[in-house]
Specification:
Number of domains: 2
CATH superfamily of the largest domain: Vaccinia Virus protein VP39
Structural class: alpha/beta
Bound molecules: S-adenosylmethionine
Distance between the termini: 67 Å
């Protein structure tokens, strides 16, 4: 193992990084512009490359997540640009994409993504079904810029519209202005008081608006459940990502707003992660 590789490993281990070898390979792959699988611990760097590697490692030692250092992240089947203005897409969220694809027909349907962030959910769905069009809403202008750049890169701009809006706005249904076959949302769901306890990678680098779910964590679910019946076609589905232990209460909140529980899907860790509700048919 080269000296600098070993040193970098020790530094990452000292701050409690779980998989230091993988992370160093990812950083080195970015420096050498090659695949991480072709990087070994005896790698040799020029002084310029070493300088760049040291600057990336210094950011990681500040607990900046790897995807925000490298400015992109794989999600479902595509690569998404990410920066400090968007939530880093999480592997758990891919369940929403899988369930949406299972429910959506191949025809001309339209879907709405509430709180699009990087655009990873709706854009992954659109990539798989070429007749679907969509609307992506976010309160953050800066995150919409990222989502738009991702749509450009993935050649989806002709099928995707972006609206900057706040779902707590009284006029939100009018602002969005149409009914959809499906609504997808991964809203902020961390109780405000728990945010300080999150890992530094999350609390210091994901935007607060992407995390803060209000006092009990359910503020956005309550609001989305209220507006969804006005934005869905009869028989349309609402897919919500749930935080750990939140699924049943989300079902109750949505049921109280007139939606029917279709199913709840667990993630690979057995956590009920995706709540699927349906607007009754007529
Ligand atoms: C948990 S992040 C999800 C981002 C992305 N959909 C994903 O799954 O990676 C929640 C998103 O909702 C947006 N958001 C938060 N409150 C909002 C509100 N009141 N109205 C519209 N968007 C909101 C945030 O800006 C953020 O992009």
């Amino acid at each position: 193992m080269s000296y600098f590789f070993n040193q970098a490993m020790q530094k990452l281990i000292s701050i409690g990084i779980e998989n230091p070898r993988l992370e160093i390979r990812l950083l080195l792959a970015a420096v050498l512009r090659c695949s991480p699988s072709s990087i070994f611990s005896d790698v040799v760097l020029t002084s310029e490359q070493k300088k760049l590697f040291d600057s990336l490692l210094a950011q990681r030692l500040q607990r900046k997540p790897i995807d925000k250092i490298l400015k992109h992240r794989e999600f479902y089947k595509a690569d998404f640009m990410v920066d400090e203005n968007v939530l880093s897409p999480r592997a758990d969220t891919e369940i929403l994409v899988e369930e949406a694809l299972r429910l959506l027909p191949n025809g001309n349907v339209n879907i709405l993504d509430l709180g699009t962030g990087s655009g990873c959910i709706i854009e992954s769905v659109l990539l798989e079904k070429d007749k679907i069009s969509g609307v992506a809403v976010d309160i953050s202008e800066r995150s919409l810029i990222v989502a738009q750049k991702n749509a450009d890169a993935l050649n989806l701009n002709s099928r995707l519209n972006f609206i900057r809006a706040d779902w707590f706005d009284d006029k939100i249904v009018k602002i969005i202005g149409q009914e959809f076959d499906m609504i997808i949302s991964n809203p902020p769901y961390i109780p405000t008081g728990d945010i300080a306890k999150l890992m530094p990678e999350v609390k210091n680098y994901d935007p607060l608006a992407a995390l803060d779910g209000g006092n009990d964590g359910y503020d956005s679910y309550k609001r989305i459940a209220k507006i969804a019946p006005h934005l869905l076609k009869y028989g349309g589905h609402l897919l919500l990502e749930a935080g750990c232990g939140q699924a049943q209460k989300i079902v109750d909140i949505c049921t109280a707003c007139g939606l029917i529980h279709h199913k709840t899907v667990a993630d690979l860790n057995g956590i009920a992660r995706c709540v699927i509700m349906q607007k009754p048919s007529h």
